[in-house]
């Protein structure tokens, strides 16, 4: 507390809410946040996701409303996931120009533009998940070989087709989440060759095989049998996560991501320290479900726990945070 007669009292900077606000080292802003949204083909009304209270599978109409709400709240982006009525082995609905994800992208762009015109403020950036797991009848993130393994290079061809279809529908950011080797370079080439040089690639760079993805499987009606550990990362490895990010940066990623956020804060910090592009982190479905369940039982303060969890992700180095609480947080920050 004292050195050479000087008395140190760090508590002086904590005395009042005003002082704590002034001295805060890390700040959240609604523009830092991206809201993940699910749009499902064939629904007459939004379908609640039981393991994610407060979240739904959207119709195209309710998706429009959700994007408009996020826009008015000042949220920085929306990440769209499509759930088709029919699936097959190669996920052909994923790059169908009139498939559910492409229709959702068009709806989201229209809703964002309408709010921009109404408010005079920028609306959310429209992002699309560029992966096959929602579209394949086997639930894996890629095309399978005869013996059931995921074929990395054949999958890259499918990702390229998806990215171009998403860009044509109006996606401003495509987000390859399947953890295929070389996916960023292939998407960049495909987009550039198709004339979409301004569409950004958000690379899921360090995506770990995680138990915290459980509720997401319900959200996208996953057909997965088995697991994805042959292509998603082992949770034991941190240096590997940094290497994956380095590879994606070398391939031209415009942004890189770490997922899941809450259990990968060390990797997030390491990626942020070496990245010269924005770094994103995804606060995943299981993280959302845990806090919501505990809060529903009265065991924790919901608002306090949500803000603390997201602030920790920001403090660890994330510039962009994907969170299902994006609109809630934006309201609290106002």
Descriptors:
334 residues; alpha/beta; 8-stranded parallel β-barrel; two-stranded antiparallel sheet; 11 helices; 12 strands; 16% strand; globular
Explain what this protein looks like in three dimensions.
By secondary structure, this protein is an alpha/beta fold. The chain contains eleven helices and twelve strands. The chain has helices spanning 17-23, 60-73, 100-119, 152-169, 183-193, 214-219, 239-250, 265-274, 285-296, 302-315, 326-333; strands at residues 2-3, 6-7, 33-40, 47-48, 56-58, 77-83, 125-130, 173-176, 200-207, 255-259, 279-282, 320-322. The chain has an eight-stranded parallel barrel with strand order 3-6-7-8-9-10-11-12, surrounded by eight helices. A hairpin with a 7-residue loop joins strand 4 and strand 5. Helix 7 packs parallel to helix 8 (265-274). The longest helix has 20 residues, at 100-119. It starts with a strand and ends with a helix. The mean pLDDT is 96.
Q: What is the mean predicted local confidence, pLDDT?
A: 96
- Principal-axes geometry comes out as globular
Number of strands: 12
Along the chain, the helix and strand elements come as EEHEEEHEHEHEHEHHEHEHHEH
How much strand content do the residues show?
Answer: 15-25%
DSSP summary: helix tally: 11
Element layout with pairings:
Blueprint lengths: L1 E2 L2 E2 L9 H7 L9 E8 L6 E2 L7 E3 L1 H14 L3 E7 L16 H20 L5 E6 L21 H18 L3 E4 L6 H11 L6 E8 L6 H6 L19 H12 L4 E5 L5 H10 L4 E4 L2 H12 L5 H14 L4 E3 L3 H8 L1
Parallel strand pairs: 3-5, 3-6, 3-12, 6-7, 7-8, 8-9, 9-10, 10-11, 11-12
Antiparallel strand pairs: 1-2, 4-5
Helix pairs in contact: 2-3, 3-4, 4-5, 7-8
């Amino acid at each position: 507390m004292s050195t050479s007669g000087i008395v140190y009292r760090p508590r002086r900077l904590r005395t009042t809410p005003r002082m704590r606000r002034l001295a805060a080292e890390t700040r959240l802003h609604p523009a830092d946040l991206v809201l993940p949204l699910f749009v499902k083909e064939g629904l007459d009304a939004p379908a609640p996701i039981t393991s994610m209270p407060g979240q739904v599978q959207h119709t195209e109409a309710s998706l429009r409303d959700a994007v408009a709400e996020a826009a008015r709240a000042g949220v920085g982006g929306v990440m769209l996931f499509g759930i088709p009525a029919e699936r097959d082995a190669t996920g052909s609905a994923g790059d169908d120009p009139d498939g559910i994800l492409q229709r959702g992208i068009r709806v989201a762009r229209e809703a964002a533009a309408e709010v921009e015109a109404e408010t005079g403020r920028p609306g959310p950036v429209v992002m699309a998940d560029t992966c096959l797991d929602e579209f394949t009848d086997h639930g894996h993130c890629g095309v399978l070989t005869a013996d059931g393994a995921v074929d990395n290079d054949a999958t890259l061809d499918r990702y390229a087709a998806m990215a171009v279809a998403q860009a044509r529908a109006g996606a401003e950011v495509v987000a390859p989440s399947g953890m295929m080797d070389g996916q960023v370079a292939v998407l960049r080439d495909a987009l550039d060759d198709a004339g979409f040089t301004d569409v950004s690639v958000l690379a899921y760079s360090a995506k770990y095989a995680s138990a915290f993805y459980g509720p997401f499987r319900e959200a996208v009606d996953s057909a997965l049998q088995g697991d994805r550990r042959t292509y998603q990362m082992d949770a034991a490895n941190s240096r590997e996560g940094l290497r994956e990010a380095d590879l994606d940066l070398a391939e031209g990623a415009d942004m890189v991501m770490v997922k899941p956020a809450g259990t990968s804060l060390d990797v997030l910090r390491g990626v942020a320290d070496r990245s010269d592009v924005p770094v994103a982190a995804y606060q995943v479905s299981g993280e959302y479900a845990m806090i919501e369940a505990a809060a529903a039982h009265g065991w924790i303060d919901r608002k306090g726990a949500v803000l603390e969890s997201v602030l920790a992700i920001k403090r660890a180095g994330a510039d962009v945070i994907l969170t299902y609480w994006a609109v809630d947080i934006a309201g609290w920050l106002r």
